[in-house]
Amino acid sequence: MIRRELNFFILNGIVSVALAYFVYRVLVFEIIFDVNWANGVAYISGMLYGFFSNRKWAFQDRGFVTNKKITRYILLYMLTLIVNVTINATILNNLKGVYGAVIFSFLIAIGFSTTLNFIGLKYFVYNLNNNIIAEI
Fold first, then answer.
1. CB-based contact 125:5 (threshold 8 Å)
2. Which of 27, 39, 52, 93 has its CA 20 to 30 A from that of 135?
3. Does the pLDDT at position 57 exceed 70?
């Protein structure tokens, strides 16, 4: 079961990033939107897609979309964004001037935040009736 969930989670992540990039490109180059606002709108569009696609395909949550699930999803992604940025900055700070530091720090940070997202979605956001922390 976890293998299927992980496969769909990865596929949904790829589609989510592609969607966000498409939205970003359209807003910046076709609509002439400010890049910072375009980036924010693109990120939110990817998050929205991720919420519904992971709910349906990766974790097969058949319950209603509730405020509790939406709040948990937003909190999870805020936490993992902080983790990602912190890990990336820490590694970059410690590897100043080292060739490949930027890509290395990016990959480590994205690896940690993606792992936390998977665990958080599985046990904290979806299938609330089937997990230990359903009462939170």
1. no
2. 52
3. yes
